[in-house]
Amino acid sequence: MTRKDKNTLVYVPVFNDFAVIEQIVEDIRGVLPSVTVLLIDDGSTKGPFAASSVKNALHVRLPSNYGIGVCTHVAFDHAIIHEYDFVCRVDADGQHPVEHLSDMLQILSEQGADLVVGARIAIGSNLQPDPILRRWVRAYFSVCARLLTGNSVLKDVNTGFFALNIGAVRRLNTYQLERYPEPQLFVRAARIGLKMKLHSIERRDRLFGSSSLGLWAALKMVYRFNVLVLSEIMQRSER
Prior knowledge:
Layout: E1 8-14, H1 21-31, E2 36-41, E3 58-61, H2 68-81, E4 86-89, H3 101-110, E5 115-122, H4 132-148, E6 162-165, H5 166-172, H6 182-191, E7 196-203, H7 215-234
Parallel strand pairs: 1-2, 1-4, 2-3, 5-7
Antiparallel strand pairs: 4-6, 5-6
């Protein structure tokens, strides 16, 4: 990359998934040595997670489990206050291939994109298939999001691996993100005319933990998404 990565913030929401977090921070710094890594502990309940436990990273602990939407606003606020140029999101379970971060930042800086989405594709035969409930929820969200945005939103609206420039951060930070914010983020980005690019990444199995998406959680996600759809229908697109 020709640009310096010291003006990039990479935030990692963390909730009880500490097992591989140090390795993830190390991997991020192996790709982008000068980035700021911000670990946001979303009110973890299983053991202490002290700031000193992970080197070369900033740490914020929320007093309760507010969800990834609040974590995203914390990261966006930090990026705006400290005048970063780019913000990236990486999950704490090891699924995201952080080696793609440099490519995503390059797309932002050289191709004029406001938001780069890491869309997951299956590579290899050893991957554990997603549970059918998760596949159904993702398919429902994707279809609704594409209908809502006139087919302008990118596929895989549930991915948590993305990168934005600070202009996109400022505009999206005015929009209240909920506990499961990814579809909201991408739908709103499409409707306010942000330029989005898709970057294909290989889908990986979790290195730690398991999906928390049971039937009750899935129903709550669908309910919240339907509320989002209704609110978006009532709003005019802003371009």
